Amino acid sequence: VRAEFDVRDVVQEDRVHGSVYTSPEIFQREMDTIFSTGWVYVAHDSEVSEPGDYLTRQIGSNPVVVAHGKDGEVRVLLNRCSHRANKLCNAEMGNASSFRCPYHGWTFSNTGSLTAVPMREGYGDAFQGVRSELGLAEAARVDSYGGFIFASLAAEGPSLTEHLGGAVRAIDRLLDLSPTGTIDLRANWMKHRHLANWKMVVENNVDGYHALFTHASVYDAVRPAKVSHVPSKTAVVVRDIGDGHSEIDYAAEYRRIDEEFVWYGRTTREKLPKYSAALEKRHGPEKTHDALVVGPPHTLIWPNLFLAEMNVMYVEPLSVNETIAYTTAAMFPGQDEINQKSLRRAEGAMGPAGFLIADDGEIGMRNQAGLAARDPEWLRLSRGVETDVADETGIVNSDKSAETPQRGFYRQWAKVVGGADAPAATTIEQENDQ
Ligand code: FES
Ligand code: FE
Description:
The protein is α+β, with helices and mostly antiparallel strands and about 425 residues long. Helices cover about 30% and strands about 25% of the residues. The protein has helices at about 25-30, 35, 125-130, 160-165, 170-175, 200-205, 210-215, 215-220, 250-255, 265-270, 275-285, 285-295, 335-350, 355-370, 405-420; strands at about 10, 15, 40-45, 55-60, 60-70, 75-80, 95, 100, 105-110, 115, 140-145, 150, 190-195, 235-240, 245-250, 300, 305-310, 310-320, 320-330, 380, 390, 395-400. Strands 13-19-18-17-16-15-14-22-21 form a nine-stranded antiparallel beta sheet. The longest helix is centred in the last third of the chain and has 18 residues, at about 355-370. The two termini are about 40 Å apart. FE2/S2 (inorganic) cluster binds near residues 81, 83, 101, 103 and 105. It comes from Gordonia humi. Keywords: 2Fe-2S, Dioxygenase, Iron, Iron-sulfur, Metal-binding, NAD, Oxidoreductase.
């Protein structure tokens, strides 16, 4: 099948074909490539900090259990009984030393090994010999950075460090703001079912263009005098970090807008004195000032993790037109003063009736409906091509509303989905532009 697929039919340098959002075959191919060969975000250290802690998650179409084993190791086990493939663990989270299958009662320890088979005699003597092979399958590789745990179902491939590349800076940037240098994600997750393709949900997070229109009513309501929805000349930029990662860097805006909870050194010190003092205790005044002025990241980490200020979001694709987005607020250990604000802000933006996620969810649904309305066509991602500036490391900066992140996303998509020998993206002629 792979040999017959030419990614140039659906992705080119400045455009993407609508079928990437609607084709069940392309969706399946993404599951077989992006979510089966690469690193995918699955959980955070703080959620499985104690032996026995577990969570159920998805890696593409594979249900998994992230389990902190009694031996101290965190594994990503396939959530599938080795008897007849029943989904083994059906709770979202908990603490357990073992998992018993609801179908015939086979029991597995939280390290994955098969520990009990009811009425085992019925299998005869030969069964003892194969029993050790009947443990749970597990992700070939599990690794973490800054507490964020990623798994890869493939034994071979780039290391997590290579995969994250320049995106580690985003995680560092978030951790720099924590007085302990760590975060915890134990406020639990808000779930949103989007009737949209997973890539639409993901890409939208680094679309600096839509916010001015999709969310105009929110911004007008909360900061009437300070922000106009006319694109400004601030130095806010979008950035293609490479390897599919990208971001909108709001540092310039944090400095410009003087309001509560904006990451401007002076304002943060006034509004959050306890937090600022604790941060200063860690870093000293100079580095504290720098961390606050740079502020938190707004970064998409390919393919499914998104850090948006103090919000963390990850997505699980359900089908070609259905996606679950999980969001929570990053908590700084022991910092109630700022944590309360982070929680309230996350609720307001991303909660069940959150203003931003409600807008984005509806836009995603309408987008999917539009794509289904007739034969898909090429969709243009050329905004900002002329303002892209690559620095000496290859990172591409562009104007706030440029589609530079999307171009980087689909360059990576073509590489991964098209296979190692995917053709380089080419700019096609601008025949329709005049
Ligand atoms: Fe799990 Fe039979 S399918 S015990
Ligand atoms: Fe939005």
